[in-house]
Design goal:
Layout: E1 2-10, E2 14-18, E3 21-32, E4 38-45, H1 47-55, E5 60-72, E6 75-87, H2 88-92, H3 113-119
Antiparallel strand pairs: 1-3, 1-5, 2-3, 3-4, 5-6
Amino acid sequence: MELTGKIIKVLPMQSGTSAKGEWRKQEFVIEIPGTYPKKVALTAWNEKAQEVQSLGLGQEIKAQIDIESREYNDRWYTDIRAWKIEKANASSSSSTPSSNPANNTNPASTGSPFDSASESGNDPFGSNDPSQNQEDDLPF
């Protein structure tokens, strides 16, 4: 799953040692734009925690996430883990309007497969245009 938003808060980094070795955990909050903007708290672990530290507040990011819930003492806790974090504008520059394969010379065209059919007179649904002399055998 992917989320895109602006970093609005970076919480203090947490670290410790477990049986598997040292670990670092960085929690941060992003705001997802829209009619009703949403705030989402994400968690980054180890190397990804360092990436969050280098980004800073106000930075637009795109995060690939995993969501998992677990139960403890009859209560459920949800963890949203960011496993890939990148600046949002870094990948959006690769798509340009000129690379759209649906581009053609007809400005009224929407790129629909039915555009060329209706332009050539081969309407796939049968036209109700009275200028075309079609016989109507329906009683109404």
